[in-house]
From TrEMBL:
Cross-referenced Pfam families: DDE_Tnp_1_2, DUF772
Name of the protein described by the UniProt record: Transposase family protein
Biological source species: Desulfosporosinus youngiae DSM 17734
Bias (Basic and acidic residues) ranges: 134-143, 156-174
NCBIfam families for this protein: transpos_IS5_1
Domain Transposase InsH N-terminal residue range list: 21-115
Entry superkingdom: Bacteria
Amino acid sequence: MYRKPSPQLTIDDFILPFSGKLDPENRWVQLANIIPWDEYEKEYAHMFPSDRGNVAKPVRMALGTLIIQARCGYTDRETVQQITENPYLQWFIGLKEFQLTRPLTPVALVKFRKRFKKDRMAKINERIALAERAAKTSEKEAEKNDDDQQGPNLPDADKEEKKTPADSDSEESKPNQGMLILDATCTPADIKYPTDLGLLNESREKLDEIIDTLHKAKGKATKRPRTYREKARKAYLSVSKQRSPRKKQLRKGIKQQLQYCKRNLRHVDQMLKEIPSGFEALSNRQVKLLETIRTVIEQQETMYKTKQHQIPDRIVNLYQDHVRPIVRGKASAKVEFGAKVAISIEKGFCRIEKLSWDAFNEAETLIDSVERYRARNGCYPEAVLADKIYRNRKNLAYCKNHNIRLSGPKLGRPSGDALKKVEKAIERMDAKMRNAVEGKFGEGKRKYGLDRVYAKLKETAECMISMQFFVMNLEHKLRVLFVQILKRYFQITDIGVFA
């Protein structure tokens, strides 16, 4: 059930326990003023078609709480505690007066993240960028109207005569304008570094726990099956404690753990058959964990028999079975475990072009990203700044057909000395401008938590990743507004230069 909340009060109407008023220059007040809450409210209300049940929290409380968490890097419990203690945060999430009791529970944040999935977050993120473009368009129209009022008043016939056929053609087919920056990164999940031996040992331990649960459900009169957990533990430690075990020792240890896991799995299947039908001895989490362990045992047995270390859809964590290894080739970590994100930057705003837990070639996203750019702006970009991996023959042919300059050296023989100097200068300029995407990755990983995503579920992790890029766009919009204020009130024509 959903009920439309009453209009949000201004900061002057917010009631404080010890009188006083909120500061309009506070960062949370400024941030709340640039977010179109009313537009999000309409789409959010459609998620609750029923008129029965408990009333859902409004979108300002749900989305505002997630923004606070992503901006400050709090945990769920710490986020609720900070909101309870801070009047600015309570006003930010839509409360009318300061209250000492907590307005929501930490469990509510999990539900909020499930509501704001990556597709919905992409629409919310797009509205921030579109609002910025609409603001710039209105400013240009205002300046144009001022110029028209100051200039001579020409009749409409003279204005129509000044329009040439070339102008009408340019309106129908706009020339390439703007610049698009593309790149991809990995957002590591909060998991232990996986090894085949460690994954099998953890599977064996979890199977032991499931056997204990089933034995307790059957009753103490039955005999618990033997699992050799102490011997299995000693066999695992004898290999894992070695600094660099030999291949034969490692292979022998994997074989032993495989045999223990298969034995325990047979016991589990037998005990499940003996339990009366309709009696749920295992919880939903244990049932899902059991299915994941079955898949892990099958994958590890296949890799052991074929003497390989790669398999499709390889599971690297029992509780986050959606996480896959992503080979990045970096010096610090050649393989990362998490979601791979391909983004684009246009005028300082980030957009997620593709988010996947499976490895993909980021060069495949270039054409789709450029077409989405054309749908937004009505024209193709003048240049696409990307890494060398994007420069395959398909992308080069596509950019050539649409008169788009793709950064990097041309294929074939090098040109003459004069042209070579010009091309190198353009390459250096493109490389400097492409560094903006590396700065965005650094900002997201150092400040907003993209270096380690702590969410366990797939949809909540995708929400956290999308939310962090959304918060970065909000911060960029605040900086843009600050620069506009400087230009308007202090007559600044360029950064650091006064007119």
